[in-house]
Amino acid sequence: MGSSSTIVKFSLILALKYLLVANALNNTTNSFSHKADSFPIDTNFIFPSPLPNWPQGGDFATGELDLGGLKVQQISEFHKIWSTKGEGPNDAIATFFEPFIPDGFSMLGSYAQPNNRPLFGWTLVAKAADNSSDILKQPTDYTLVWSNGNNSIFNPAYFWLPIPPDGYKSLGLVVTTAPGKPSLDKIKCVRSNFTADAEIDDWIWGNVYGLRPKIRGAGAQGVSVGTFSLQSDVLSLSCLINTNPNYTTGKLNGFQMETLFQAYAPYIYFHPKEKYLPSSVEWFFNNGALLYTKGQESNPVRVESGGLNLPTGGSDDGLYWLDLPTEDEAEHWVKSGDLLSAEAYVHFKPVLGGTFTDIQVWMFYPFNGHAIAKLGFINRMSLGRAGEHVGDWEHVTLHVSNFDGALCKVYFSQHSGGRWVDITQLQFQSGNRFVWYASRNGHAGNHEAGTFLQGPGNGVGIRNDWEKSDKVVDTGASFVVVATELEAEVVAEPVWLGYERKWGPTKDYDTAAEVRRAKKWLPGELKKALEGLVKLLDELFGMEGPTGPKLKKNWSGDELI
């Protein structure tokens, strides 16, 4: 009987434990289920500080722009239509929205965004400036271009392409959760002379991509609508075009430019072990920078203050280049840069038909340090002089909406390329000013600390190390507007900006030879891995000293992606 009682007690204890575990599992499951139903996109992104009251002047930050008879507003308030259940960028799902339409305006297309970030998007709505105008017309019909209706009873979606009347273009899709066609007055098509060719932009989810104008850069008239497309030949969607000449060149005045930059001016943080810091261009000149002339290499001349003796005009023809002073002590001194003198060189340019302003922030470094590799278990391996060169120009670009003055995204240059980073991923401090990390030795930009390898993968590549330290530049406290392509303001460009030759000599070392010296004691497999980085090193750092900002393709063109 005692044995039976013990068994019963033991069984009761097991049952109780089972119930407790089951309850815990249920709670955990419910917790995860709740988490799966709650995404960052459920929360709107809000700047750390309210946007300032922008200085008056022109139509900047008035909320509405006239594209030459077609008025547009940028809408960031949305009504949710449908969320996916499949994979997207960073394993996120996506959500599709319709904008809230102000009285008198019409929708041009739906908006879509991955769910792995807070909602911070926009799409344009439009109306004709003249009520009697025929710039906008409703579609004649719809074509169903995608649906999961046959496979998803509980989460159906239907993507509809508006069929425009003759002489008109569609700029976006309509998303529904029912199989019936949308009403014809749901969306408007735009007369062809107000449209431009479009191409796909960032991947959103599945076969869904954002849309952007094919032709971009300073003065380009194409206008992004904020809609999306499917990567499919079936679709033929367009962007808008600005036919108003007052907006193709922009209209910010000097006070607006200064206020706009100071509202978002980045803090640049350098690695605690960084040896090659930035300086002002003037400090570089005043501390012994030399100008060389082809054929007279034995007789360089010192660069005068302000670069007054630099050759301007012409082209990058190899006839002239800059270099460090020849005395060892002075060379070492100038290589190190001077953080106290460092200043940001700012360039304003209108983009996307004057609906946005790009603010390029350029930093000069007298010297770019050697590359460091990671080779499997070897975390940090110096590659001799490989990657070194005199003169280094790096920049970020702030992409600002002219509708409300809001910063939307930032481009970080990284050696020979770079990437756009969404505003929701930035680190802010001192209000709405963001952090710009510069990598150790190479000064590649990034929005967060960490290590990134450029190379074949599998633990092999060139290291980009970003870390905060007390080495920092406050660009808002030390900047110069050196150029603007905004018609309302003329800026006196410094002489050195018109210098169109190299800011450093062609390197005097062989990358392959430097790598051979570095790999001398490596085992066979790692030697092969290191050899594979030789071409990458030359692609990233180049064979010659860099040209100045004005000769970069992205000075007046679109940022490389």
Backbone CA Rg: 28 Å
Oligomer: single chain
Form type: globular
Task: Give unreliable regions as ranges.
Answer: 1-38
Output the strand order for the largest sheet.
29-28-27-24-23-36
- Average pLDDT metric: 87
Number of helices: 9
What can be said about the biggest beta sheet? 6 strands, mixed
Structural class based on helices, strands and sheet pairing: alpha+beta
Number of strands: 36
Strand content: 25-35%
- The amount of helix comes to 10-25%
Number of domains: 2
Terminal Cα separation, in Å? Answer: 80 Å
Kindly describe this structure.
The chain has 9 helices and 36 strands. It is of the alpha+beta class. It has a 6-stranded mixed beta sheet with strand order 29-28-27-24-23-36, covered by helices on one side. A 5-stranded antiparallel beta sheet has the order 16-18-14-15-17, with no helix packed on it. A hairpin with a 2-residue loop joins strand 28 and strand 29 (417-422). 42% of the residues are buried. Mean pLDDT is 87; it is low at 1-38.
Summarize the structure.
By secondary structure, this protein is α+β, with helices and mostly antiparallel strands.
Task: Give the SSE map.
Elements: H1 2-37, E1 64-66, E2 70-75, E3 78-83, E4 94-99, E5 106-107, E6 111-114, E7 123-128, E8 136-137, E9 141-147, E10 158-163, E11 168-169, E12 174-176, E13 189-191, E14 195-205, E15 208-213, E16 222-223, E17 228-230, E18 238-241, H2 245-248, H3 254-264, E19 267-270, H4 281-286, E20 290-293, E21 301-302, E22 320-323, H5 328-335, E23 344-351, E24 356-368, E25 372-375, E26 378-382, E27 389-401, E28 407-414, E29 417-422, E30 428-429, E31 433-438, E32 445-446, E33 450-457, E34 460-466, E35 472-474, E36 479-484, H6 511-518, H7 524-531, H8 534-541, H9 553-556
Parallel strand pairs: 19-31, 23-36
Antiparallel strand pairs: 1-2, 2-7, 3-4, 4-6, 5-7, 8-13, 9-10, 10-12, 11-13, 14-15, 14-18, 15-17, 16-18, 19-35, 20-21, 20-22, 23-24, 24-27, 25-26, 25-34, 27-28, 28-29, 30-31, 31-32, 33-34
